[in-house]
Amino acid sequence: MKRIAIGLLVLALAACFAVPAMAEFKPYASLRVITGWYDHTANDTGGLDDEDLWWELGDFSRFGGKFTIGDLGGHVEFGLKGDGIGGNAAYTRLLYGTWDFGGGKLVVGQDYNPYTFIAAQIAPRDAVGSGLGTGRTIDGENYLIGYGCLWDSRQPQVRLEMDNGFYVSLIQPETLSSLVGLTIPAGFALDEDKTLPKMCVGYKFKGEGFMLNPGFAYNTYEVEIDALDWEEDIDSYLLYLTGKAGMGMADLQWSLHYGQNLGNFGLWSREDAAYAHFDLADGDVEDSDSYGGYVQVAFPLDPATITLGVGYVQSENDLRGDGEEDEQMSYFIQAKIPLADTFWVVPEFSYYDQMENGTDLPDDEEPEAWFLGLMWRMDF
Q1: Cα–Cα distance between 281 and 269 in angstroms, integer?
Q2: How much is the pLDDT for 130?
């Protein structure tokens, strides 16, 4: 896999340098190393208790380039990660092309989704420990993912962006069909059928020192067991509002959302309460409801920037603990300190609280964790 990724990178760069002289190509890279300590405290009913040193190359380190040829543009970006013990690897982060047709732009390829608006948090996701939702982990910056930041990875899509701020995107659909409570009988198979892409529509307003981005996204797929003549549609929707505003002495940033079956939608680090549940009593699917978001405030204090952020999410399903709510929260404080023109250190303290797990068990408290350390970041 590593050789294939390196080969693709070489071919992409060769193609860029082979284009006519009128083409413009801008390479870039970012090195990010995270060093510090984390501590994870399990709940009273079991789990992982751990404290350890974190000293790794963040897999958010990257190398890429952008090019333009008249009305066409392109962006390729590879992530670079490694543990120094033979686990080094490269992976595709971004690979898309653009066409400026006058009055708007068409984007085709793998890119960030319109509802993704990351926070500045640098604590590694794995520092939170085990037992947190889907099990999808991130070795580098967490960005409040799962604690208010909406993240379902960078995905293949076809997106239309109009100059007036309106946009619509057709995205690779999600099929997280492991419904909570559904047991597939031995000898039977569960089939997932996709009929529509994940769809997102919104409007991005930009003013002087201000941005507001409201939108709506929808994902659907069908799960069925043919031999039992059983099938159900799993519908998910997401309402979101992201934005930022300059407020003189501080810069404010936020991401707010409400939705249904957001675990099945594909959002990372959600607990079981955010997934659709299978009701054994009548064979139907019970939808979940979720809401949350984060707020971040940055204070530019020459030469450093001090940033504080807090995120919170809540999910519930009527089949869990008589409709009890599952909550999780994270907050952080950091300073971005320049050592040279494009070289910074970022000391940070982050705290994660899984709070309650949304059941009516006598003890439903979940784990807590904290991280204290630095990110060393050098851009070239």
Answers
A1: 29
A2: 38
